Amino acid sequence: MEIAKNLLEIKKGLPAGVQLVAVSKTKPNAAILEAYEAGQRVFGENKVQELAQKYEELPKDIEWHFIGHLQSNKVKYMAPFVSLIHGVDSLKLLKTINKEAAKNKRTIRCLLQFHIAEESTKFGLSEEEAMEMLDSGEVQALENVEIAGVMGMATYTDDENQIRKEFRVLHNIFSALKNRYFATSGSFREISMGMSDDYPIAMEEGSTMIRVGSKIFGERNYQH
């Protein structure tokens, strides 16, 4: 019951308005069910194939989030059921999600992913790119996607000041986009930032959604 204990421990420290996404990538169904039995309903995966399989096999009231880097050609496999896509970093991808959502007669919620870390390996938009995209009017014309907020990952470092600074940048981007494009939209409200190592800082900087894996499930099971 380690998983249930970890989960309750984390939830105790969550302020109102912060949602916990349990990152279940590479985890077996049994581990996910243990978290489910403890009351967790929101899970995050980063491989479309694994996500689709788990969706088939696990309880249908689970809310699945896709949290990895997404390739356009994979969208169709999860379009029938995915609740939120965390990492949208191009207009092309947004258009594909819109097309596949329409085929399934759904609206899919998406977060715009921003590159806030100093590491060059992280994907994401710059604030300028996002504004260019939103200024074009093309996003507003997509009827089957809903831009629900922003997402970003801080640099993997022990330097708390740097992490805090990067989260603050994302919060500022959220506020700028909210004021300029989504002032009247009730759905643009999420700031997805913070993972197992840095989520307490993220919450202090205004995160509404944290993505926690190893602190719940233990270290990752890498599949060879």
Total discrete domains: 1
Distance, first to last CA: 26 Å
Q: Write out the strand line-up for the largest beta sheet, numbering strands in chain order.
A: 1-2-3-4-5-6-7-8
Number of strands: 8
CATH class: Alpha Beta
Shape: globular
Largest sheet: 8 strands, parallel, barrel
Q: Which runs of at least 5 residues are low in confidence (pLDDT < 50)?
A: none
Portion of residues within helices: 25-40%
- CATH architect. name: Alpha-Beta Barrel
Secondary structure: elements and pairs:
Layout: H1 2-12, E1 19-23, H2 29-37, E2 42-45, H3 48-57, E3 63-66, H4 75-78, E4 84-88, H5 91-103, E5 108-114, H6 127-135, E6 145-152, H7 160-181, E7 190-195, H8 199-204, E8 209-212, H9 214-217
Parallel strand pairs: 1-2, 1-8, 2-3, 3-4, 4-5, 5-6, 6-7, 7-8
Tags for this model:
224 residues, alpha/beta, TIM Barrel, eight-stranded parallel barrel, 9 helices, 8 strands, globular
